[in-house]
Amino acid sequence: MDIINELIKDNPDLKIRKLNINNKKIYIIYFESLCNSSSINEYILYPIENNNLNTYKKIINKLPSSNLLELNNKEDILLNLYSGFTLIYIDKKYISFETKEKLSSDITEASNEKGIKGPKDSFTENYQTNLGLIRKRIRSDKLKVIEHTLGKSSKTKLALIYMDNITNKKLVNDINEKIKKIDIDYIPNTNYILELISKKNYTLPNYLMTERPDLTSYHLMNGRCIILLENTIEVLILPSFFSDYIQNIDDYYQNTKNISITRIIRLLAFIISILTPSIYIALTTFNPETLPTSILINFSIQRSGVPFPSIIEAIILIISFEILREADARIPTLVSSSMSIVGALVLGEAAVNAGLISPIMIIVIALSSVASFLFNDIDVVNSIRIWKIIILLLSSFLGLYGLFIGSLLFLIKITSMSSFGYDYTLPIYPFSLKEQSNNIILTKKYKLNFRNKFLTKNKRR
Amino acid sequence: MKKIIIVFFILLLCGCSDYKELNDLAIISTIGIDKDKDDYKICMEVLNTNKKDSKNYIIYSKGKTLNEAINKANDKSDKKIYGGHLNQLIVSKDIFNKKNTEIIDSFIRLTEVKDEIDLFLSKEDTACELLETSIKSNKESYKLLDNSLKYSSRSSNTNIDTYISNTLKYGIDPVISTIKKDKDNIVIDNIAITSNGKIIKYLNEKETIGYNFIRNEINNFSIPVKYKDKYMTIKINKSKTTNKAYKNKIIININIDAYITEYNLDLDLDDNKTISKLEKLTEKEIDKYIKEVIKLDNKSNFLGFKRMIYEDYKIKTNDYSISTNIKVNLKRKGELKRKI
């Protein structure tokens, strides 16, 4: 009892209940904040008093519990207490019972990744629930889970999940070794893991972070590794490629033939969102001879009376749009609709009427910003923003040359990126003709019969 | 970090050399060139880029040389004169005969200006008068005669680029399209043919059509064909001309797909013989146009026959014969339109 007496000083929510049954003292110790008191009453106190269980053996044998452990050392005792177990101290021995209070949200609809068809459930903050959501989908003995406990103070659970017959063993070992080396105090979210185990930090994400169990299971069955962390709703999928942002899990739930066009539109949107502002600036301020005369007159009429140079105008608009977006993400939903009205009116109507900003620039920036929202991962959207600004600045100095220099820089950057040993631009570089059937276009045959040949040797489904 | 600083300074040091804001530019679409005693008198059509008044306007200028005149015009405009979208050049007849090489030369030396500027000759009025009429008649145009050039077979347009190359090549002389005032409007007129840099003749309508048949530039053209005092109209759908030189003999091959669009003759169209008869008739009709223009070949090399012989055999000769080979194919397939 020395351990407990020491503990009780600074922990007001630690409760100790003394029972006296047939002149024998039994201590029941638990954290009020972590445990469910009704299950303590029902499954511990009630049976002990009713059946006069006053020895260690009796309690071990008679108490109705699925999760019961004998504890010996101090570390285990503390860990169990902090994990929401109830301890029984009898005959100078500790027994622990699971009486966890549910401290996470229910399984709800995925809020960040919306889909039109397909299952709607999403991961929760509960580790076991998340694992269950995956096991529910893949009922196979080949599904393997390696568990780690990370964080010196937080003691957060982490699971590395893979398919034994599909996933490349080298990849699993590689990631597992890196996870073992992690030395950190506290892990708040999944992206900590990523930044701890990968050396380079790219602007474009070379990982997938998702809250959808169906997407997770799909990638698991295609030979990727999953990292699942306690207390977060996001799951890491490794490795991942550029094409993963052009593709979407929804695609596989819809008519295969029509999806190719959707993917072409997504790719177009990516290019549009990165390049439109810089193309506009380069063409109008450096190379107006390349525009058809009718368009040039139109642009020129719209710009007449605007006091700023085009580049300043573009930067003002981009910044104010980003401010609006950031505000919209943080503001409570009650106020958000009124704010979007103010934003649209102030930025759109009033700025144009006041002659501060030309309408064509609003069209250009709005088009590029809206196009970037086709990608539901916020990291991709932010990365598009960075590249958009880099290429915009280059083309505002150098015109079309700057535009091409910037685009080349972008191409060089993404072709030199890698994700856990795999090239980021797979399957375009290194090129594979067969993998093109699930790249921008999707064929029915590939969808039903094949797995990505770069990821697994077990190619046929 | 070093790389970033280097890139940043490179950008700053070389930046903005060619920078211009759209609303600081006076975009010029047409330049008219006239004579004022010994000087050039030029007028430039500046496209309107203001929201309020929506009319293009003209800047006038004078100078000893063309470039001087254009330079002076900059002082008269509140915006920088920008010639990247210069589309047409109208030159008065008087000054063209005297100074055509100088005019063309100074335009190809301007880097801002593109090569494909349409070249027009004003036969009767001065170039500036034509430009003023054009601005009065249509408010928002930036091309004087774009559509009539594209769709007409009664005209042919030359740009500066082809003018220069035809002038420099052996055995071919450039032609220029002319424009004239027609009440309050500007219309395209017949072609002027040149020889040694001088205008020697204006073609009439028939000759112009014949010229376009030989140059393979026929489109959207209908021929009335007469047979026993009654007319039918043949619409040419597709016309392809291939000219070939065999030593001293030049053969003009013209293949034409055509439809009958108007028919008042008494012949039975179901009969195959009628069709071939009509084809023969049309061929004769087209041959008349071509004969008409070939007559002029001794005056100027504008049809380029000498060039064809020179390109294939490297012979410079004045002695050659021309024969034509016209084939008309009247199409009989058609759809019956249903009554609604």
Spell out the blueprint of helices and strands:
The complex is a heterodimer of chains A (461) and B (340).
Chain A: H1 2-7, E1 14-21, E2 24-31, H2 37-51, H3 56-62, E3 68-71, H4 74-82, E4 85-90, E5 93-98, H5 127-137, E6 143-150, E7 156-163, H6 169-180, H7 190-197, E8 208-210, H8 213-220, E9 225-229, E10 235-238, H9 243-246, H10 256-285, H11 293-303, H12 310-330, H13 333-353, H14 359-372, H15 378-398, H16 400-416, E11 418-419, E12 422-423, H17 444-449
Antiparallel strand pairs in A: 1-2, 2-4, 3-5, 4-5, 6-7, 7-9, 8-10, 9-10, 11-12
Chain B: H1 2-14, E1 25-36, E2 39-46, E3 57-63, H2 66-76, E4 80-82, E5 88-92, H3 93-109, E6 118-122, H4 127-137, H5 146-151, E7 158-159, H6 160-168, E8 175-182, E9 185-195, E10 198-202, H7 205-214, E11 221-227, E12 230-246, E13 249-263, H8 272-294, H9 305-313, E14 321-330
Parallel strand pairs in B: 1-4, 1-5, 5-6, 6-8, 13-14
Antiparallel strand pairs in B: 1-2, 2-3, 6-7, 8-9, 9-10, 11-12, 12-13
Helix pairs in contact in B: 7-8
